[in-house]
User: Fold these one by one.
Assistant:
Number 1:
Amino acid sequence: HYNLGNAYYALKQWSEAGSAYCKAVEQQPDLAEAHYNLGLLAQERAQLDIALRHYRHAADLNPANLDALLNLALILKEGGRIAEAEACLRRLLQRDPKHARGRVNLASILVTMDDLEHAEPLCQEVLRDDPALAEAWLNLGVVRQARGDPNGAIAAFRRALELKLDYQDAKYNLGIAQLLTGSFSPGWENYEARWH
């Protein structure tokens, strides 16, 4: 049933894929991959409680499935469950300390928690390893802005936009930083870009 679910998934026949994965889990409850794929399907359908349950099962059954931990953390973060999201990301990073998306998202959570002391070095570490991660530049810009360095923030937001041209979060934050430095015309333009 698991392979049939994968075939349906590849054909974007979501309902059939979900049914096949459910049958696979009924027959083999410890099949981590089926739980993970059920998590993906539930997440795509905005059934976040179901997605959380399946991602947890997948991560518990197969600790090497770092994507399950990452997706679990992202849903928890979006739901405002910041401490749980942080714990998931730290668990992921214990298994793979260089996991780029895990570190970027942990830095974002640290910024959310106003833990700038730990967020900034983590952003810089990620950027040393992969200077092309727009999300890490955004996080660094937010940290610099919060620390009262709007010019440093502007440089980081601009770098994020060079790497990802349509990055609305970077444009919005760049607009705020520009407004704070008196660059009103580009500041308002970038700030308002998030509504378009």
Number 2:
Amino acid sequence: SIIVLVTAATQDPDTSIALAEVRHADPTFARTFGVLTKLDLVEEPAVPKVLDSLRNLGEDGHPQFGHGRVGVICRNDKEQDEGADFKVVEEKEKAWVKQNCGNSSIGTPGGTAPTNALGRTNMMARLQETFMEEILPQLPAIFEDVRRAVKESTDKQLRFAKLRVEDAELFGKQSEHVVKELLQTDLCDGIKRDIT
């Protein structure tokens, strides 16, 4: 399984309850993908420190996430109330990145950590890649489990259908015997007279 840890860039990681919970579930952070939100709300003097936390995973007390980390900007309350779409967010992200980084990718080339990126689009792409990396090796086992479940279900349905046929045949023989006996009774003679 993959754990997606979402924390605000404005929050001190040492006080993050979410980080503490993830650390409990995934002590080495091998299964963790980090999303750092609210980059645009970080006060100017702290921006370099936030960018360093994205660049230097595993250094200076920042946890190294096995699936990397992405920084994003979210819609604010006013934008959500006005129904602003994510194109507005993408424009805000581009402007923020241009002002603070000069480009959209801040990963360390050749580093041991997976590439860390900025922006919602990069986050979605990285989550898709991570999902595919995790799920592809498991597909043969998943297909085998599905095949086995379908076979078991089919076998149960066939056994049930066979029982129904046997019951119908047995009922048919019993019904034939009951009808023959009924035809020989006085009650049946009365029905015959009423019909004719």
